[in-house]
What we know:
CATH class: Mainly Alpha
Largest sheet: none
Number of strands: 0
Radius of gyration: 17 Å
Strand content: under 5%
Amino acid sequence: MEGLIDKTLKYVKDYFQNDASGHDFYHTFRVYKLAINIAKQENADIGLTAIIALLHDVDDCKLVGKDGELFKNVRKYLTSNNIDNATIDLICSEISKISFKGDGKKCPETLEGKIAQDADRIDDLGAIGIARTFTYGGSIGRMIYSPEVAIRETVSEADYLNNSGTTIGHFYEKKLKLLDLINTEEGKRIALTRTNYVKEYLKEFFDEWEGKK
């Protein structure tokens, strides 16, 4: 498995080299490193965790369109590395449940998949998560904020995929909900610190918006 991890690191580095949406190689690499650290704390299979984490965005529909749901790229890559069909099916099934998409309540079945999901969601929080949110919002033409655009309590999967709303609204519609959706104890510990940072940022944002500072 170690050899496959090294190959997969190179594969995703090449695959995401031109991304400017916040889903670049370094996002994948951070998710991978964080997933490994959580896996060690949770006594999970390191190899399986690593592969799920490294490939989790390769067929993401936000990046490749609806064909991403077929996991064409993941299947092709794993098949070319002589991974058996049962393992490929497992990996694809776990990846299919990682993305937030609407209420974010889809959850992988295995501990390894749950850890990869935690790591992906944690990278959406904290200082880097804030930066990624504005990067992605800009890449799809989403405005930063408008008091005339309501912040929604719930967002359907269709609305989520249509990227409606504002970037600041997205913090409330997704990011501040992530802590309650983290699967592992180690993941919750890390996510809590990063969520508190996001809350501090939003307070500062609205103080400045109102001209209080």
